[in-house]
Specification:
Distance between the termini: 22 Å
Strand content: under 5%
Number of strands: 0
Number of helices: 7
Structural class: mainly alpha
Length: 195
């Protein structure tokens, strides 16, 4: 998938995850079941696209040490989130109900290091790397100054309430449209040079 498409598809997949998550909770319980699995798969697909997005943002920022470190930090966070969502899917398949999921989650999180790496510290790196990259792009004027503000809103909203994930995804999509345009320009330059 090209970078321009990734910048649009990733927020849409996050939006899908957020909406499915809300629908899954309408009965008062989230998971296990089709909605649980489908929502998690949508977010996993978004995370895979974020690897490409972070690397493209690094290119757009000039491939310097700071952008490289930011991209790597973000990708480490992606790995942690992929582990978390993978665990969530497996637990959803193994448990008969929400109470059973809780028991399995407790066992997994009791394993030394899992809680910090997969649930608490590790995933935060995804958000830190993402914000760092978009701030760098704003500083060098590759994107408007409001772009990091929208990304920050996207990052903060789920901490207020996870039901705000779809709203945050809309802010992310709006912030990524200029980045998609920049990615198309960055990709077009090497192709033009080869012609």
């Amino acid at each position: 998938m090209n970078s321009r498409t990734a910048f649009i598809a990733a927020p849409l997949l996050v939006l899908a995850y957020g909406v499915i998550r809300i629908l899954d909770g309408l009965d008062g319980s989230r998971g296990p079941g089709l909605a649980w699995t489908t929502g998690h798969l949508a977010f996993i697909a978004a995370l895979v696209l974020f690897v490409q997005i972070f690397w493209q943002m690094r290119r757009m920022a000039g491939r310097n040490a700071l952008s490289t470190v930011s991209a790597v930090v973000g990708i480490v966070g992606i790995v942690a989130l992929l582990a978390q969502f993978g665990i969530d899917i497996v637990v959803g398949f193994l448990a008969a109900d929400r109470a059973g999921m809780g028991v399995l989650f407790d066992r997994i999180q009791d394993v030394p290091g899992v809680s910090i790496a997969v649930y608490d510290g590790g995933p935060a790196l995804f958000y830190v790397g993402q914000l760092a990259l978009v701030v760098q792009l704003a500083v060098i004027r590759r994107v408007k100054v409001w772009t990091p503000v929208l990304v920050l809103i996207y990052l903060v909203l789920p901490f207020a309430d996870k039901d705000f994930i779809p709203v945050g995804a809309v802010f992310l999509l709006i912030s990524f449209v200029p980045l998609a345009r920049q990615a198309a320009t960055t990709t077009a330059r090497p192709a033009a040079a080869l012609a």
